[in-house]
Amino acid sequence: MTRPECEGSAREAYAKINLTLEITGKRTDGYHEIASVVQVIDLRDTLYFRPDDHISLSCSVPQLAWPGNLVIQAVKLLQGAVGTRRGVAISLDKGIPVAAGLGGGSSDAAVTLEAVNEMWGLGLGRESLCGMAARLGSDVPFFVGGGRTAVLAGRGEKVTYLPSPPRSWVVLVRPPIQIANKTREMYARVSPSQFTAGDYTRTMAEAIEKGDRVALELCYNVFDDIGFSSLGKLADYRDRFLTAGAAQVHLAGSGPALFSLVQDRSEAEDICRRLRKQNVEVYVAETV
After folding, report:
1. Which of 127, 151, 169 is closest to 272 using CA atoms?
2. How remote is the C-alpha of 60 from its chain's centroid?
């Protein structure tokens, strides 16, 4: 996909992985309370913005260019907040796998809020943008303001930023598994017996605050056991990942993407090469 043939601005929207993801309870509004440490990685989408009379979106993945895309919804929220009918033409070049648990749609929405706020000269501060972001989705507030590492609480909208840990290499596998209403379905499969008290998240956050490199053995995801036991071939892809050299494998968010952390780029590329020989969709990234 090419940049629009007019003046405009380009913004990058980064993916994330959940180093920890715990469910600590269920709320009366139907949402779950979570505790999570999230980390941005350098796998990214690129968005191009230019002023226009109407709102439009084109995308390198054509099926994403529809009115329900969070990018379009973000622009409409801004329109409503300030009472304007100004428009913007947006082109989205996808580099983050779609519906994989990597936060691509949420990151795109956050970047759109920031870019259009600036383009239209609205002057809305981070607090206002985060309020809009929370209306778009639980992951969106984290991405507002360019934070790299954070603890998430509530349904994900309560963000406490952490110092970024020393950089690590990440290998990602995107299994060809499609789940309708994925996030809702995965949360629906969690039983109260799988709720935890947030200890995994506190331990990870404390290690990061001390300046430690992220230790794979501290990673935790409540959806690991659920996904590996109930999502068809997901366990098979985990086993392939382990056989290719990964020490541990976890779901990214609610999946189905899988990730492992490794010591250096050479090790990451070795694992990647072994998996590509099996025609597995695999990516190498670095924490940011």
Report:
1. 169
2. 19
Topology of the domain comprising 169-196+223-286? Alpha-Beta Plaits (3.30.70)
CB 141 within 8 A of CB 159: yes
CATH architecture under which domain 9-161 falls: 2-Layer Sandwich (3.30)
The model's pTM is 0.94
CATH 3.30.230.10 in the chain is located at 9-161
Both structure tokens of 250 = 């976890």
Q: What pLDDT, on the 0 to 100 scale, is given for residue 181? A: 85
132-161 pLDDT, tens digit each = 999 999 999 999 988 899 999 999 999 999
pLDDT digits (tens, 9 = 90+) for 188-205: 999 999 999 999 999 999
Domain boundaries for CATH 3.30.70.890 within the chain: 169-196+223-286
Paired tokens of 29: 């509004």
Catalytic positions are 16, 139
Q: How many other C-beta atoms can be found within 10 angstroms of the C-beta atom of residue 218?
A: 18
Between helix 234-243 and helix 223-230 the angle, nearest 10°, is 110
Q: Secondary structure of the chain: what % helix, strand, coil (to 5)? A: 35, 30, 35
Token pair, residue 151, equals 């603890």
Closest to 259 measured CA to CA, from 14, 12, 93, 15: 15
